[in-house]
Amino acid sequence: MKILILPDERAATQRAADIVARTVRDTPAAVLGLATGGTMLPLYEALAQRHRNDGLSFANITSFNLDEYIGLPPDHPCSYHAYMYDAFFKLVDINPSRTHLPKGDAIDPQAASVDYEALIEAAGGIDLQILGIGRNGHIGFNEPTASLGSRTRIKTLTESTRRANQRYFASFEETPRYAITMGVATILESRKCLLIATGAAKAEAVARMIEGPLSAACPASALQLHTSATIVLDEAAAGDLTLTGYFENVHPEGRDSVFD
Ligand code: PGA
After folding, report:
1. Residue nearest atom 8 in ligand 1 by C-alpha distance
2. How far is the CA of 205 from the centre of ligand 1 (A)?
3. Residue 169 phi/psi, 5° resolution?
4. Which end of the chain is less crowded, N or C, counting CB atoms within 10 A of the terminal residue's CB?
5. Which residues line the pocket of ligand 1, CB cutoff 6 A?
């Protein structure tokens, strides 16, 4: 794992945007794995700004989002389809026909999950998977105890995840209970992973992911098995790590090391 610690959220966001922009420039037809959530909003803003100001083009990019709530049609304002359109797709030149999210309103969500895996495979797999982390250590909606060998499927959300996401819905009762999510093994198959975590509320989960045991109790710890996983943190999210001195020695101020 490559651990980059930046002074604050703004710097962490720009560092993560640099990594995504480099992939898009080097491989204009790259397949990106995309994430949702509050942490990603400034990242999408930064990428849209680079599109406007620096001509960063997403015209040939294919994208696959990690997850979608079951029961919400794409035009529901709280769906991740709507989130992606508002936060990113409408702001850049990505071709809508090459953007993919799981079909949360499918009549058969199980079959839709299998189809989603096949679509990722047909696209040649994911070049760079962008990830957030839940306070409980989830990646995608792979909640604690999710199989580390899991593929795209239906997951029941934990109460803590529903509480964290309740702010987007009218009430806790209306916050969806189920989602379709890429599995842990689906995520691990991506050629590169980039996880971004900011804020003190993520510090404990971040420490378990990086320094804790490999365990389904913290699905993000599965990234320890990935040979090209970069974790971009602000100082608050890095606050519970014990090896901070080492990480800062390897990557001072979150810069690449001499061998990168
Ligand atoms: P957040 O969500 O960015 O809204 O904290 C991250 C996640 O749950 O993966």
Report:
1. 134
2. 11
3. -115, 170
4. C
5. 37-39, 132-134
